[in-house]
Design a protein that fits this description.
Layout: E1 4-7, H1 15-22, H2 28-35, H3 51-63, E2 67-72, H4 76-92, E3 97-100, H5 113-121, E4 124-130, H6 137-145, E5 149-153, E6 168-170, H7 186-203, H8 219-228, H9 235-248, H10 254-262, H11 272-289, H12 293-300, H13 304-336, E7 345-350, H14 354-368, E8 372-377, E9 381-387, H15 394-399, E10 405-410, E11 414-420, H16 424-438, E12 447-450, E13 452-453, H17 461-468, E14 482-495, E15 500-507, E16 510-516, H18 522-529, E17 533-544, E18 547-559
Parallel strand pairs: 1-12, 2-3, 2-4, 4-5, 5-6, 7-8, 13-14, 16-18
Antiparallel strand pairs: 8-9, 9-11, 10-11, 14-15, 14-17, 15-16, 17-18
Helix pairs in contact: 3-7, 4-7, 4-8, 4-12, 5-6, 7-8, 8-9, 8-11, 10-13, 11-12, 11-13, 12-13, 13-14
C-alpha cells in the first residue's frame, strides 16, 4: 500500500533537539527526565485519587486476617498486574489471599455478578481488581450487598460520570483525578498500589514485613504488561519499562526464566521488541486459547520444574494461536474482499475463537488501513473486537449503536463489544454512516512519518549511540526514522527466499549496508532502472559475530524522481 511520506514539523537543524521536540519534550526538566529516567523520579503514588483509602482498607484486611481476592482480566497487562500484587503479599508474608480470572469464552471481560457471588460464597471479604472494574457498577453494588468491599485499580475510560460505589477507585482517567501521568497501564496502576503499600510498611508496623525498595524486583513484570498493552513509553512508563528490562536480566521469578528459555531469548539484552513480540504473546496465549490462570501460575510459581512445564505449555499454546490466527485471517479476508472500498470493514464467522478475533482485527487494520471489526458469532449473540486508525475513535463510533449493543468498551484505537446476531447488519450500517462524517478519503492513506532529513555522512557511531539513548522505544517514542535522498544502490539482493531486500547504498563516497524487511519485490525494479532512490530508514548498530557496524533498516523507498 502506498504511503504518504510526512516530515515532523521542523524546528531546528540540531537532530537531537528535533527528536526531543517531536516527542513533546520542550522544557529542560522534561528533557532531563527523558534522558535520565531514574526510578526515584516516579511520582508519589498517593497523588492518585483514593490511593490512601485503598492502602488503609488493605491494611485493615491484613490486620483482621480477612480473605483478599485479586480479580484480574485475562490479557498480559492484567495477568502481570495480578502477579505484581500477589508477589507483594507473598513477600510480605500474608497468605490469606487468592485470585480470580474470568474465562474469556464463558464469562467475558470484566467483573461479572456470577463471579462476585462465587467469591462471596468462598469467604472473600475484600476484592482488589486489576486492569478492570471502572465500569462494573452492578457488580460492585452486589459485592457491597453481599458484605464484600471492593478496591478498584484500573486504567480504562469511565463510561458514566460517577464511579462505582467501591471503597476506593484508583484510575488516572477518573475525572476528579489529578495524577500527573495519565498513561499508566493496568499493571502500572497495580504497581503504584504496591509502592504505596511498601511506603506504609516503612512508616508503620502493620503485621507485614518487607524491605524498603523491594518493589523494584517487580519492574520486570511491570515492563512486560506495559509494553503488551501498547501504551505510551514516555513519562513514568519510560521509567518502568527502562528499569524493568534491567531487572528482567536478573529476574527472581523462575517462571520468567523458563519462559525466556523456551522462547530462545538471551538474558544479555532485552528490548521492547522481545517483550512485545516474543514474551507477551506467550503470556496472552493462555487466555486466548485455554485459560489465563496458566500464565498467572507461571509468574507465581517458585518451583523450577513447574515453571519449565508451564512455560512449555504456553509455548505450545502460542503456536496454536499462530495457526488459528492465520486460519481466521484467511477466512476474514475473503469476506472483506466482497465489501469493496468501504471505510469501515467488518467480518463475522461462526465459531471463530474469541481470543483470536482481536489479533485478526489488528493485522487487517494494518493491512487495509481501515477500521476493522471481527466478530465471533454464537447461537444468539456475536462478540467482536475492533481496531482502528488514529483519525477514527472506534469507541465513539461503536457507541453510536449503543441502543442495540449488549456491552461495549475500550480505547480510541481498540474496543470490544457484544450484540445480537440479527443486529450485525444495522450495526455495520451505523458505523459506515458515522465514518462518512468523520473520515475523509485522504485520512485513509497511511502516513509514514520521519523525524528529519539527513545525509549518509551524518551516520557516525556517535550519531547512532545518541539515538540509542532514546531507548526503550515504543508508543509515543518510536525508534527514530530519517529520510535520506539521492542514494545510489551499489549492491542489491534478497534474503529469505526473496522476501527481504538487502542492499548497500552510496552517496559522496560513503557506503552503508541496508536491510528492508518485506521489500524484496524491489530487487528487480532497482536492478533494471539503475536509479537514485530516496529512503526512510532507522539507523542502528548491527552486531554479528562480535563485529559492530552501522546498518540502515529501510522502512520504505521510492525513486528520487518521485515515481
Amino acid at each position: 500500500m502506498k504511503k504518504i511520506w510526512q516530515s515532523r514539523e521542523r524546528v531546528t537543524d540540531d537532530v537531537l533537539g528535533q527528536l526531543l521536540h517531536n516527542r513533546g519534550l520542550r522544557d529542560s526538566k522534561a528533557i532531563e527526565d527523558f534522558l535520565d529516567p531514574k526510578y526515584e523520579k516516579s511520582f508519589n503514588p498517593s497523588l492518585l485519587k483514593d490511593m490512601d483509602k485503598a492502602v488503609l482498607r488493605i491494611a485493615s484486611a491484613v490486620s483482621a486476617r480477612e480473605k483478599i481476592t485479586v480479580y484480574a482480566d485475562y490479557d498480559a497487562d492484567a495477568v502481570t498486574a495480578a502477579a505484581v500484587l500477589l508477589r507483594f503479599f507473598q513477600a510480605a508474608g500474608y497468605s490469606n489471599v487468592n485470585y480470580y480470572i474470568p474465562d474469556r469464552n464463558t464469562e467475558g471481560y470484566g467483573v461479572n455478578p456470577e463471579a462476585v457471588q462465587f467469591l462471596a460464597d468462598r469467604g472473600t471479604k475484600l476484592v482488589i481488581t486489576v486492569d478492570c472494574g471502572i465500569n462494573a457498577f452492578d457488580s460492585v453494588t452486589l459485592a457491597n450487598y453481599l458484605g464484600m468491599d471492593v478496591v478498584i485499580t484500573d486504567h480504562h475510560q469511565l463510561e458514566r460520570g460517577a464511579v462505582p460505589e467501591a471503597i476506593a477507585v484508583i484510575d488516572p482517567h477518573r475525572p476528579d483525578d489529578n495524577y500527573p501521568f495519565k498513561d499508566l497501564t493496568g499493571v502500572g496502576v497495580a504497581f503504584k498500589l504496591v509502592q504505596a503499600l511498601v511506603r506504609k510498611l516503612e512508616i508503620e508496623n502493620w503485621k507485614l514485613k518487607i524491605a524498603a525498595g523491594w518493589e523494584k524486583w517487580l519492574l520486570d513484570l511491570v515492563a512486560i504488561g506495559t509494553v503488551a498493552d501498547c501504551q505510551s513509553l514516555l513519562g513514568e512508563n519510560r521509567i518502568f519499562v527502562g528499569w524493568g528490562m534491567v531487572v528482567m536480566g536478573k529476574t527472581r521469578w523462575p517462571g520468567l526464566r523458563a519462559l525466556f528459555e523456551v522462547a530462545g531469548i538471551s538474558k544479555d539484552k532485552f528490548d521492547t521488541y522481545k517483550i512485545g513480540f516474543i514474551i507477551a504473546p506467550r503470556i496472552n496465549a493462555a487466555g486466548r486459547i485455554e485459560h489465563a490462570n496458566l500464565a498467572l501460575e507461571l509468574l507465581l510459581t517458585d518451583d523450577e520444574r513447574a515453571a519449565a512445564r508451564l512455560a512449555q505449555k504456553l509455548n505450545e499454546l502460542n503456536s496454536r494461536r499462530q495457526e488459528l490466527t492465520e486460519q481466521i485471517l484467511s477466512e476474514a479476508r475473503e469476506q472483506l474482499g466482497l465489501l469493496g472500498n468501504q471505510k469501515v470493514l467488518l467480518a463475522a464467522g461462526d465459531g471463530w475463537p474469541k481470543g483470536i478475533v482481536g489479533l485478526v482485527a489488528s493485522k487487517l487494520t494494518e493491512e487495509f488501513y481501515r477500521p476493522v471489526l471481527i466478530l465471533e458469532k454464537g447461537e444468539m449473540e456475536a462478540t467482536g473486537s475492533a481496531r482502528s486508525i488514529p483519525s477514527f475513535n472506534i469507541v465513539e463510533a461503536i457507541g453510536q449503536s449503543r441502543e442495540i449493543l449488549l456491552k461495549y468498551g475500550g480505547h480510541p484505537m481498540a474496543a470490544g463489544f457484544t450484540l445480537r446476531n440479527e443486529h450485525i447488519e444495522v450495526f455495520h450500517k451505523n458505523l459506515l454512516a458515522y465514518a462518512d462524517d468523520i473520515l475523509s478519503d485522504e485520512s485513509l492513506l497511511p502516513a509514514l512519518y520521519y523525524e528529519a532529513e539527513i545525509f549518509l555522512r551524518d551516520l557516525t557511531e556517535d550519531f547512532i549511540a545518541m539515538l540509542e539513548r532514546f531507548t526503550p522505544f515504543g508508543i509515543g517514542n518510536p525508534r527514530p526514522r530519517f529520510r535520506i535522498n539521492n542514494l545510489a544502490p551499489a549492491t542489491v539482493s534478497t534474503v529469505s527466499e526473496g522476501k527481504h531486500l538487502r542492499m548497500s547504498v552510496e552517496s559522496q563516497n560513503q557506503k552503508i549496508g541496508c536491510i528492508g524487511f518485506n521489500l524484496g519485490f524491489w530487487k528487480e525494479r532497482l536492478q533494471a532502472a539503475n536509479p537514485y532512490i530516496d529512503i526512510i530508514c532507522e539507523p542502528q548498530f548491527n552486531v554479528w559475530n562480535g563485529h559492530k557496524n552501522i546498518q540502515l533498516r529501510v522502512v520504505d523507498l521510492k525513486f528520487s524522481d518521485g515515481e
